[in-house]
Amino acid sequence: MKFLLVFDFDHTIVDENSDTWIVKCAPENKLPNELRNSYRPGHWTEYMGRVFVYLGDNGVKEDEMKRTMTTIPFTAGMVDLLGFIGKNKELFDCIIVSDSNTVFIDWILKAADLRKVFDEVFTNPAAFSSTGYLTVQNFHAHHCAKCPKNLCKRKVLKEFLDKQLEQGVSYTQIVYIGDGGNDLCPVMILKKDDIAMPRQGYTLEKKMSRLAQDFSPVECSILVWSSATEIMSYLKVLIKE
After folding, report:
1. Alpha-carbon span 58 to 129, nearest angstrom
2. Please, are residues 17 and 10 in contact by the beta-carbon 8 Å criterion?
3. Is 46 inside a domain boundary?
4. What count of other Cβ atoms lies within 10 Å of the Cβ of residue 1?
5. What is the pLDDT of residues 152-196, one digit of tens each?
6. Catalytic residue selected from 10, 93, 183, 194
7. Which amino acids are annotated as binding site for substrate, given as ranges?
8. What's the CATH number where 115 sits?
9. Residue 195 belongs to a domain
10. Residue 10 designated active-site
11. Is 63 a domain residue?
């Protein structure tokens, strides 16, 4: 009996957006208007690439970025929740599927000694170039019209589940914990024994309640959360059953 926990990262594990948090490193803590206005919907990763060039051009180095990123606050109750999952790893497989990047997520989780809780992290690959600039790439290519060009979380989840099945691992239940609009696509493939946990007041919850109003609700159960303590209470009941 094994459960799969799927976490988004921004506004789910951490209480902010890691990509906008890095702006604290910019001169006067802000980006020039023309850079801010250069974002096109569905092309966030390319926009962040330009932000990283701007930071590099202004002499922002890796150690300053790291210091800034490791001050990002975790969501209420999240550190306790991840500690609980870490103590029960024989029951839980745990992955992150995020539109952030490998460098930010690694820095933040390692600083809090939480990296080992997660079996895999699926996010946009990032690295520092020889000139000291942070660069980021799209996670993959896909054909989903609903998702941003760089990442379809449904595709990631499906490929992960297929790979696990090939290795003889199937899950009693999938628990999907997220907040954003791009979390709806993977939630749509969850089955009736699975559970979606949208964060209260965020886009995912609003989109899911609109679906219910249109009489096309998701197949899985739904549990709305505002603190990770509520998620932990659910998991404790789950492993007792």
Report:
1. 15
2. yes
3. no
4. 10
5. 999 999 999 999 999 999 999 999 999 999 999 999 999 999 999
6. 10
7. 19, 99
8. 3.40.50.1000
9. yes
10. yes
11. no
Q: Tokens at residue 73, please?
A: 């606050």
In the residue annotation, 106 being an active-site residue is answered as: no
Q: What is the CA radius of gyration of the chain?
A: 18
d(CA 175, CA 231): 10
Which residue shows structure tokens 């000291």? 132
CB-count exposure of residue 19 (10 Å: 0-12, 13-18, 19+): buried
Residue 1 in this model has a pLDDT that exceeds 90: no
Look at residue 170 and tell me if it is in a domain. Answer: yes
Q: How many domains does the chain have?
A: 1
Query: What's the pLDDT tens digit per position in 24-51?
Result: 999 999 999 999 999 998 889 999 999 9
Point out the annotated binding site for Mg(2+): 8, 10, 179
Of the listed 8, 93, 183, 194, which one is catalytic?
8
Tell me the residue range of the domain where 153 lies: 2-15+74-124+147-239
How far is residue 140's CA from residue 124's CA, in Å, rounded to a whole number? 8
